[in-house]
Amino acid sequence: MPGSYYAPAGSPLSPFRVSADFAAGLLSDRATLELIASFTTQGHPHAWLMSSGRAAMSVVLHAMRDVRNDAARDEVVIPAYTCYSVPASIERAGLRPRLCDIDPATLSYDEGALARIDFTRVLAITSANLYGLPNALTQLESLARDRGVFLLDDAAQAMGASADQRPAGTFGDAGIYSFDKGKNITTIQGGAIVSRDGALAVALAKHVSALPGAGVIETGMLAAKLLVYSLALRPGMYGLIRRLPGLKLGLTPYELECPNTRLSQALAAVALRQRQRLPLLAAQRAAAADRYRAALGGLPGVRLIAPLPGTTPAWARFPLLVEAPRDRARLLAALDAAGIGATASYPAALIDVPEVAARIRVASEDFAGARHVAAHIVTLPTHPYCPGTLAADVRGIFEQQRGS
Ligand SMILES: *Cc1c(COP(=O)(O)O)cnc(C)c1O
How remote is the CA of residue 312 from the centroid of ligand 1, in Å? Predict the structure, then answer.
């Protein structure tokens, strides 16, 4: 369709279902209870719904600090390339990020760099599971146990993914999920926490119950935005909407402010329907990823990210590395011109984000892996609005760019 555009990421929504679920959710907490129950597992029998993944992360870190009760442990080990919301959540919890380099081949922590980290001031380590590809979660879990620190499994992009037959988000002591705009399911803003039984769950319950409930105006605004989103994600509409000024689509700011309440029961009802449809959505995204792998694997100058053995990714996006950064800029421009929402993901390694660098106590490494990924990564859309032919179109554009 001329003028159509495939958004970089998203979840298709029916405006009618959104309205009906939202209205039903206003009247009953049944969906809230069902959604909470859907996140609990045998290992993580506690779950809470939050107004954002960032709020979820800050609350978990606060609870971890309470339980550890050791003021000297104020560092959180995070990948040197991840969403800027992660160090921002750490700062909001009054803690400091400690960066660890990643392996560009897997986007998981670089094993050598992880082994060199001094854990004496560390409270917790987080996973990232970027684009829905699970990190080496089983290994991270044993590392956290051996070093005596908490593991926060950040599944903000990996709802529906699994590693060694366990859901991403359920490794270690607590996990978080996000329902933001480009995540696996969406309520525009929202998130969830899951936790193991014990002192951490008690502290989490205390922190979450101290938060205000969602505001009426805020909830109404999110409902309105969801209706716009449900229409705007359609390729015929996104081509128009993305040109509107003031939308700030695709920006990655370092922001300390974020909605910090519990999730409204109306939005929980909207999330529940998507959560029930998640296996289907995940299968559609995985099929898109398979098509990209078949079309782009082996292309000169392109390196695909191999999912780790034993993992089933959720493919929130399809990441790959382009060998020459100069080619990447041209490639992104050509994809954009063809109506394909490819992105360069987060623009910098966290060490190169001034707000993050300012809070780091020690940074003895050069973070070559994270910097390489920042300069070379491209993400491609995997949502169900992407037609089966998109991978071949992308391949054609890659080939054309190489030839030009
Ligand atoms: C999006 C994201 C978050 C934060 O979630 P929000 O709901 O956007 O606040 C945390 N970690 C990662 C890896 C993310 O991608």
Answer: 20
